Amino acid sequence: MQDIKNNIRSYVEARREQMLEDLIRLCRIPSTAQNPAALSAAASEVAAALASCGASPRIFEIEGGAPIVYGEIGSGERTLLVYNHYDVQPADPLDLWRTDPFTPTIEGDAFYCRGASDNKGNFMARVHAVRALQAATGKLPVRIKFLIEGEEETSSAHLGAFVREHRELLKADGCLWECSWKDPRGRPILTCGLKGLCYVELRARGARHDMHSSYAAIVPNPAWRLVWALATLLDSDYRITIPGWTDEIRPPDAAASRALDRVQFDEEAFRTLHGVHEFVRRLSGRELVRQFLSCPTVTICGLRAGYTGEGAKTVLPAEAVAKLDFRLVPDMTPKKLLAALRRHLDRRGFRDIEIKEFGGVMPAATSCDDRLVRAAAAAVRMTAGVEPIIYPVAPWSGPLYDVCGVLGIPSVAFGVGHADSCDHAPNENISMDDYFEGVRCMAAFLGEYAAIP
Amino acid sequence: MQDIKNNIRSYVEARREQMLEDLIRLCRIPSTAQNPAALSAAASEVAAALASCGASPRIFEIEGGAPIVYGEIGSGERTLLVYNHYDVQPADPLDLWRTDPFTPTIEGDAFYCRGASDNKGNFMARVHAVRALQAATGKLPVRIKFLIEGEEETSSAHLGAFVREHRELLKADGCLWECSWKDPRGRPILTCGLKGLCYVELRARGARHDMHSSYAAIVPNPAWRLVWALATLLDSDYRITIPGWTDEIRPPDAAASRALDRVQFDEEAFRTLHGVHEFVRRLSGRELVRQFLSCPTVTICGLRAGYTGEGAKTVLPAEAVAKLDFRLVPDMTPKKLLAALRRHLDRRGFRDIEIKEFGGVMPAATSCDDRLVRAAAAAVRMTAGVEPIIYPVAPWSGPLYDVCGVLGIPSVAFGVGHADSCDHAPNENISMDDYFEGVRCMAAFLGEYAAIP
Question: Any chain A CB within 8 A of the CB of B60?
Fold first, then answer.
């Protein structure tokens, strides 16, 4: 075992340039939902990467969506499904990037590019781990199935149907989910589940066109309508005030509670890193951890009305828009919640507020005691040399239910991000050391998962 | 008198092309506050126009501001100050313009360009009226002083000091204010006063950078802070809820009340024109007119936070900004109100909300019985052939107090706009017929004002 570990370490050291070049090639593709050509190019690049590790790729074209790439390699008693995605969030706000968002830029140990952490760095580390393990041992101890989609950042509209349609192809004993991060002290976080998500746009309309603001004395202002409607959704303690919203929440079980109590969330480091003066409701300690990992949220992700440039413009806007994401914990369901939102707005006198739905994903969670989780924890200990932090449900979201819920398999996630990776934000980056460590961790995990009773 | 009227009509008919060319040349200059070079160019063009009517122009350079152009011509017992401005509002939102905002475009009787109505068309009509009257009668019956500034759309930061410094130069018996419009039925509106204005930006700050929205469970969201703060300023009946805000309001006097009761506000035509389903509080009739002309307002002119593009982006914004304009009626004062706003936010728990002030203007009003108003009404009757509508206080704003309040003179306004001129909004336009009528109305007014007892 120690030999294999050393062989892999040597292999990785010797091939750092190749591993970086492959990552740069994939990151350079601006594969946002707004750019279908780039999505296709990224799918081809993913297929090429899978071919490079011997996992003969298949590209499934998806009508009205981005291609899904599948690849399979290895043998053994257990089969591991590996899920990643090649699409990325838009790069806005562009003016806050220190580098061009789609020109991979290396500064010291840092690798900057949109998608470096979410999720291309993770995918590429896993591909190289498969190559490394084969080179070091001559074989793979488990069967690996790669499932790489291109619509994760826009709610994975076609993934659920694809999984249902290809149950046999995707059959596996467990799933390695897309990614994870280190905390501000550098301790890797393992996640056993994900919050769900509903994303909606609320829109209020006023006059047919923007008007001189002097008319605001008598003409209803959609920006005010929107503000008043929003203010009914969340109180100033950040508690959701939509009737029925929390009815379906299932409290953490005993294993999850134990894991939550062991979570070391470094408040000071987090606050310093992100420039946060205080947490919501001035929470700290266990209360803060539970608020972070076990509670639903409603977030204003965007507001837009009227004049938003420099200086003063006296205009009465014709419309106002808010983008909201709702994070859900097990067992909340998007469909019921969206109905509750509509009902609430109607009852509070906001029938005029339009709701546009951008899809939703279900929350999902695996037991913190599962063999898959234990194998991942062992791999992290072995490569990072520290005890991982385990999140029963991670506060972010993804189509975990659409894959593992539908297939009825457990899942776990670890990855190459760090606490300041700025996913979904300007200056997204990973540490190159973490990237290479991620290759070694994945290789160790494959060995552990094959062997664990 | 009838002769003069006919001479002027013939003169205007014969010189329509010239009058349009002069307007096109001025409108083509994108003289927004964001473009200092264009402001200078517009000031030069204004000076050239004044020179063309014999009013030897002087350009006063203003440190840190846009030039003020002054010109003087004529003689007689009475002196009329004419106030206009050559700066314009920004053209955003650009995608809603049917034509390029700074390429004057003629379609049928309509003349499209940012600034056509507010305020370049009015200025140019007045210059041509002076030329017409001189051509038709060989002289001017009053002394005219033109005061043309370039910072009206950004609260006229330097005008008040300029007027105080040049009291003697600007000394006059009355002032013709910048502009007015016809109502949806084509009845010219005369205005005897203006609401005041405070313009502020409210800003909430969160983390140092935009974050992945999963952190919104624990990291305060500035967009929510802003929404909650805004919701404390105005109730859903559009009544301002800032303590002390309405304390200084002086109710309309007898003459103003009579004028208000005579205002014919065509609700149906207005609603059809602007696509307005209903007025605030479902008001109509006299109540609606008083709400429009005699009440203060607070208007969200702009909202900006996080991601505002197409589709979904799950981001926790680092900051949120609202642009607000407050319209004031006599005798509200911006300074006291801004202090009340700060006090209110502090008391409601929003010390973190920053207020950036963009200057304010005082409300001001002239008696509806003033000789100046009677002369203007007579001129409108004579040229438009209908009884004007008189607004004791117009719902829009301008630095009326900084000029007429400081100089202690009455003011009145009429102009070339119509009810769908879209001032401050996309597709700003005037009717060319109104422009030429505006030339004749100004010429008639000069005669009336010279003669009225």
Answer: no
- Give the per-residue SS3 of A177-188: CCCCEECCCCCE
Of the candidates A337, A361, A385, which is a domain's last residue?
A: A361
Question: What pLDDT, in 10s, does the model give residues A369-393?
Answer: 999 999 999 999 999 999 999 999 9
Highest mean pLDDT among A3-7, B29-33, B136-140: B29-33
pLDDT band at B1 (very low <50, low <70, confident <90, very high): low
Joined together, the tokens standing for residue B70 give 């002054």
Predicted confidence at residue A338, as pLDDT, reads 96
Residue A191 and residue B409 in contact, taking contact as beta carbons nearer than 8 Å: no
Beta bridge partners of A405: none
pLDDT score recorded for residue A313: 86
The verdict on whether omega for the bond into residue B93 sits within 30 degrees of 0, i.e. cis, is yes
pLDDT of residue B421: 94
Are residues A80 and A164 located together in one domain of the fold?
yes
Among A330, A361, A392, where does a domain finish?
A361
Q: Which helix (H) or strand (E) holds B302?
A: strand B297-306
CB A130 within 8 A of CB A54: yes
Number of folded domains in chain B? 2
User: B51 and B150 in one domain?
Assistant: yes
- Per-residue pLDDT of B401-421, as tens digits, reads 999 999 999 999 999 999 889
The SS3 call for residue A243 is coil
Q: B137 with B67, same domain?
A: yes
CA distance B147 to B302: 31
| A276, A315, A327 ranked by CB distance to B219: nearest | A276
pTM of the model: 0.82
- Residue A48: predicted pLDDT: 98
List pLDDT tens digits, range A319-340.
999 999 999 999 999 999 999 9
Reported as a pLDDT band with limits 50, 70 and 90, residue A1 is low
Choose the closest CB to A279 out of B195, B218, B312: B218
DSSP secondary structure, A358-394, as one string: EEEE--EE--TT-HHHHHHHHHHHHHH-SPPEEESSE
Contact present, B72 and B56 (Cβ < 8 Å): yes
In chain A, residues with a C-beta closer than 8 Å to the C-beta of B230 are 224, 227
> Does one domain contain both A322 and A371?
no
Where does the pLDDT of residue A17 fall: very low under 50, low under 70, confident under 90, or very high at 90 and above?
very high
- Select from A323, A348, A420 the residue whose CB has the most chain B CBs within 10 Å, as the one to mutate to test that interface: A323
Which residues in chain A have their CB less than 8 angstroms from residue B226's CB? Answer: 303
CATH number of the domain within which A318 lies: 3.30.70.360
For residue A372, what is the domain's CATH number? 3.40.630.10
For A346, the domain range is 196-361
Mark which residues 240-279 of A lie under 8 Å from B by CB: 274-279
Whether residue A304 and residue B300 make contact (CB cut-off 8 A), yes or no, is no
Q: Check whether residue A266 and residue A149 sit in a common domain.
A: no
